[in-house]
Design a protein that fits this description.
The chain has 13 helices and 13 strands. The longest helix has 20 residues. The protein is globular and about 60 Å long.
């Protein structure tokens, strides 16, 4: 019997909401399936480096919290704290070689075979320093976002140059559909949408809530960002709609449901509701398109990724905008009624997850002496 080889995968995830975790989670699921189908004796050993706890995504993986990567600092789910973000960037780059050395020391302790990042340029620099192949997976990058937000700020030219040099180490930059063009990055490859659609479990959810399956049911989620809405301002009657919420639910509100209290996981909830309410982010847009769930969104001012996401979803699925004031006041019924009355298109195939998994597996194979075939084992230590 051939002893299993180990694929030590290091996922470096920017802790900016949950979208980057969702991407990595979908690709890891596809990689697990790919390894199992390959017929090769391979064990997956996965570490997730992020300053944010990845739960509920990437369960069973080792968490490495020692990370200085941060993305952007937010005032709320929709508003960037520009001053604090700029100050944090300048501080990180005050002694950039030392920051890279610290990140490389943390990474080296896990002895990775392949680094996949969404999309920490600090992790790119650390992996390059260690001679470990690094693959990017993201609909955006912090160099492009930084130039958009901070181009005129003093001291940023050096920051952008160090970002560009770090991203220059990418062996491949995977752009999941729909993504920003990211022409500033090397070795780009556009792949299909990345998602891992849940199962239709509406009868179980309706029974647990004591409602009929015909009752309008929506899911409200802002992608892991706090401070999105004051739901205490929402009226008791939401036009016949019930809304599953992730976050604080006002005590006794008859139309709001704490999603964490349901037995069905988040992805199954998203696939089972009549509509999702939130802000345009990659994970939510891709998940809605691939589950065939309509998306009622509130715009994100000054966020350059949003138009790319919404333009694509308008063609691939169903979406409509709700004004921020209407959402804050709970005036959602009319928008939900109009949105769910639209013709239902076929769900989009999440082909990008398997494309990314294949590339990761191929990169690992090239760098390993893995013997061929028989036994398969799975372990996410």
């Amino acid at each position: 019997m051939i002893a299993p080889a180990s694929l030590r995968l290091y996922l470096a995830i920017t802790p900016h909401g949950y979208g980057h975790f969702s991407l990595a989670d979908s690709v890891l699921g596809a990689l697990v399936d790919l390894v199992a189908a390959s017929g090769e004796p391979v064990t997956l050993d996965v570490t997730v480096e992020s300053a944010k706890d990845p739960a509920p995504f990437l369960s069973g993986c080792r968490h490495e919290p020692r990370s200085e990567d941060f993305g952007l600092l937010m005032r709320s789910a929709r508003e960037i704290d520009l001053e604090a973000s700029a100050a944090r960037l300048l501080d990180l780059h005050r002694d950039w070689p030392a920051a890279v050395a610290r990140a490389a020391a943390v990474m080296a302790a896990h002895r990775p075979d392949v680094v996949v990042t969404s999309l920490s340029y600090l992790a790119c620099a650390a992996a390059t320093r260690l001679g470990v192949p690094v693959i990017g997976l993201s609909p955006l990058n912090w160099l492009g976002i930084g130039r958009y937000l901070f181009a005129k700020r003093p001291g940023m030219d050096r920051v952008f140059a160090e970002m560009a040099e770090a991203y220059g180490g990418l062996e491949r930059m995977l752009l999941p559909t729909p993504a920003m063009p990211q022409s500033e990055l090397p070795n780009r490859l556009v792949i299909g949408p990345v998602s891992r659609p849940g199962r239709w479990r509406r009868p179980e959810i309706a029974a647990a809530l004591g409602i009929t399956e015909a009752t309008g049911l929506a899911l409200l989620n802002f992608g892991g960002m706090s401070g999105a809405l004051d739901l205490a301002a929402w009226p008791a009657d939401l036009g016949g709609w019930r809304v599953i919420v992730y976050g604080a639910v006002p005590p006794g509100h008859p139309a709001l449901i704490d999603g964490r209290a349901l037995a069905q996981p988040f992805r199954d909830q998203l696939a089972s509701v009549d509509a999702v309410i939130g802000k345009p982010g990659y994970g939510m847009v891709a998940d809605c398109a691939c589950a065939g769930t309509p998306f009622l969104y509130v715009d994100r001012p000054d966020w350059p990724e949003a138009p790319h996401l919404i333009d694509w979803l308008a063609q691939a699925g169903r979406c409509a905008e709700v004004a921020a004031d209407d959402l804050a006041a709970g005036r959602i019924a009319a928008g939900l009624d109009r949105l769910t009355a639209l013709p239902r298109p076929a769900p989009v195939a999440p082909s990008g997850a398997l494309q990314a998994a294949r590339l990761i597996f191929d990169v690992w194979r090239r760098g390993s002496a893995t013997p061929a075939r028989p036994e398969v084992r799975r372990s996410l230590a």
